[in-house]
Request: fold
Amino acid sequence: MKEILHQLRCIGCGARIAGAEALQDFRCAVCGELFDVEYPGWSKRGGNDRPNAGALKWLWRERRSSREELDCSGVWRFRELLPILDDFSNAVSLREGNTPLYHMTRAAMALRIDLLFAKHQGMNPTGSFKDTGMTAAMSVAKERGFAWVACASTGNTSASMAAYAARAGLRSLVLIPEGKIAWGKLSQAMDYGAVTCQLKADFDGCLRLLSQIVKEAPIYLLNSVNPYRLEGQKTPAFEIAEAFDWSVPDHLIVPGGNLGNSSALGKGFREMYELGLVAKMPKISVIQAAGANPLVRSFREHQAASLEPMEAHTRATAIRIGNPASWRKAVRAIQESGGWCLDVTEAEIAIAKAEIGAEGLGCEPASAVTLAGLKKLRAEGKVATAETVVLMLTGHTLKDADYTINFHRGKLLQIDEAEGREAEIASLRRDAVAVEATPAAVLDALKGSAR
Ligand code: F0G
Reply:
């Protein structure tokens, strides 16, 4: 009999089922909650598939110089900790992961923090962190013989899914909120050949509709309610631990939308801790936009025991989500790691994004909540000077060029939103100037921009 390497465990009632038995919407048939992927062999100390920490560290390092396709992926390089496929030759990879960890020297100096880093997940093949999860779940879709895959999206999931579906030879269906996603992301879904439906609904409405559709047609759902997505998205935790030579940073700061990413990173660090790869978990803090802050409200008003859906508004369209599916998993990651959950205003997001740009890194608006959140945590005394902090930058700056241009042209924020921050904003704005095509005019423009 084939050994069961993984199974699904309901985070609500604890029911365990085989991977292939999950309902199409990935909700528990008993209580309606979501599932986690679980590896039964790991809990048995000495069990035959319990990974050996020292051997893994050695093997993963060796693979960095390998030319094998799977080893070149920053997700599948860690495949011992994601045994979700019967046959790894089914893996659909675009060489995702292995993203850079940048030192943020200017922000560190301004905030008086010794060591501040950005893990730039925007440097993935389709420009966002979604690729690490998509390679995992798309591979499962392929192995299980699906012809169609689908997702609801604020843009990045759809871009990623469309690309991986094309690589796998599968067809893809995308549901997006009309007029509420950035052009860069929409153009990717088109380019990679998805059937793209723009709906008169928000992200939450799109996901609700899709959950019904997949019950009626043989389409594999690839939103982060699909627990295999989170298995891929936990691997940046392994990369971070490896980069710090297995002594993890003190604090990880993550943007919160549908809350799959914070949940996945929590799972990654938890599993490393349980397997003895690291000696502690970093604090994981989740930052939301003030207009899309259902988790912050849940902590503030209900001690994170329940969550009330809200109508969400923010220019950081990637995290314009009022009813986050994975909120219970994210609460676990925050609480068990001793992190915080807080929100930041539109002006704080815009300023932080411009500062990340000025470091030569750049990111999309949703990613910038991390730096904005760190400033608040620092001001509240929740991050000490000697702590090592990592910001998860989730998307590439080219994803939403309109936002950036509007900021630099002074057209992004309303007067009341920018109130009290005008000087700070003015010092960051770098609008393009129209000048005559003469050396004198260009040199004049230089003088005008002296800092
Ligand atoms: N940052 C970016 C750039 C995103 O695209 C998203 C989510 C998040 C942060 C939040 O991550 O949902 O795991 O809490 N984007 C999804 C999408 C919802 O459809 O692309 P989360």
